[in-house]
Specification:
With 353 residues, this protein is of the alpha/beta class. It folds into two domains: 185 residues, Quinone Oxidoreductase, Chain A, domain 1 (Alpha-Beta Complex); 130 residues, NAD(P)-binding Rossmann-like Domain (Rossmann fold, 3-Layer(aba) Sandwich), CATH 3.40.50.720. Helices cover 28% and strands 25% of the residues. It has twelve helices and 17 strands. Strands 3, 5, 6, 7, 8, 15, 16 and 17 form an eight-stranded mixed β-sheet that branches. The chain has a six-stranded parallel β-sheet with strand order 11-10-9-12-13-14, sandwiched between helices. A three-stranded antiparallel β-sheet has the order 2-1-4, with no helix packed on it. Strand 10, helix 6 and strand 11 form a beta-alpha-beta unit. The protein starts with a strand and ends with a strand. The mean pLDDT is 93. The structure holds zinc ion (ZN) (2 copies).
Length: 353
């Protein structure tokens, strides 16, 4: 089969790769769409999964596909059958460490272990454990179904943040995850959601979706928040990973408010702990998602209430063959692309916005 294969740091190419054979307890899935995650270019650049010319690896973790084969001789519990359309996570929690036993799969100490790491999604086929597949109704828009994985992250972040009825939030950064957090927080009853963003394209798009958005390079967001709230916002989601984003977060959160760092910050970011302590700010860290968040993401997509909004996140579909070009386009600082999907067999890029 064909796939985007990495053989070393920044050594990726579209080429032939061995088609996966599902082991006992696994399904073989034909990829319909694979999503490019904001972190993918970085993972490929530093060869995070330790690929080599002898052990090439297909990259990517977001997908929507069709089950074409199930190898389940022991009849393990399974939600899907051959022919079903499915989504699922890539993480392979060990199931036996303390974190796994308490259900916290996102911080399993062994989940990045090479032994159980399944194949990447930038390929024509992939294999997955049958218990980590979630069915998608056939009448759901495939474009929306394809963002199940980032949606699961949004679900995890919003659920854990505790944001609810009447709360106010500032979301720093309107990339795919930032957008999803806003959509879900609004759905949860947040009374006011403010965005800061620096890309005019994204600002325009978020305003069209009815959000209050400011360009943090041009507008004084600290003053706007100070003038229009009673001491700050209840919650800040930091989804930019930037130093100005971190500084802003601790300035505008209200006393006893909560800051949720979502984007992985550069290791050298600094935090003014004085501000945290003086306001008794609560900092809540979130990493990826748990399995139940994936189940909820699939439920939300199947229910469909938010699907019109969710669809806005996907900006274009590229041929799988052009994965490298699509990865490069995903880094465009003008923010024209938000979520890019790859499609095996597609001939040319299809813009969606
Ligand atoms: Zn992702
Ligand atoms: Zn574990």
């Amino acid at each position: 089969m064909k796939g985007y294969v990495v053989t070393g740091p920044a050594q990726g190419s579209y080429t032939d790769i061995e088609k996966p054979v599902p082991k006992a307890g696994q399904a073989l899935i034909r990829v319909i769409y694979a999503g490019i995650c904001g972190g993918d270019p970085g993972l490929i650049a530093r060869n995070a999964y330790g690929a080599s010319p002898e052990q090439p690896r297909a990259y990517g973790h977001e997908y929507y596909g069709e089950v074409v084969e199930i190898n389940n001789p022991d009849n393990l519990p399974c939600r899907v059958k051959v022919g079903d359309l499915v989504v699922g996570p890539q993480n392979a929690p060990c199931g036996v460490c303390d974190q796994c036993m308490e259900g916290r799969f996102s911080i399993c100490s062994a989940q990045y272990g090479a032994i159980r790491r399944p194949g990447g999604t930038f390929a024509e086929f992939l294999e997955r454990d049958v218990d980590k597949l979630f069915p998608i109704d056939p009448d759901v828009d495939p474009i929306v179904a394809s963002i199940a994985e980032p949606l699961a992250i949004g679900v995890f972040d919003v659920r854990n943040s505790g944001i609810g009825l009447g709360d106010t939030a500032l979301i720093i950064g309107a990339g795919a995850i930032g957008m999803l957090i806003g959509i879900l927080a609004r759905h949860n009853g947040a009374s006011r959601i403010i965005y800061t963003e620096i890309s005019e394209n994204r600002i325009e798009q978020m305003r069209a979706m009815g959000f209050e958005v400011y360009n943090s390079l041009k507008e004084d967001v600290r003053k706007i928040v100070a003038d229009t709230t009673d001491g700050g916002v209840d919650m800040v989601f930091e989804v930019s990973g930037s130093q100005p984003g971190w500084d802003l977060a601790f300035d505008v959160v209200r006393p006893k408010g909560r800051v949720v760092p979502v984007a992985l910050p550069n290791p050298n970011r600094s935090v003014d702990f004085g501000k945290l302590v003086k306001k008794e700010v609560d900092m809540l860290c979130v990493n990826m998602h748990h399995l139940n968040d994936f189940a909820e993401a699939a439920n939300l997509i199947n229910r469909g209430d938010l699907n019109d909004e969710l669809r806005q996140i996907v900006t274009s579909v590229w041929p799988l063959e052009q994965t490298q070009e699509a990865l490069d386009a995903s880094l465009d600082k003008n923010g024209k692309e938000i979520k890019i999907l790859l499609r095996p067999g597609l001939k040319e890029r299809v813009p969606l916005v």
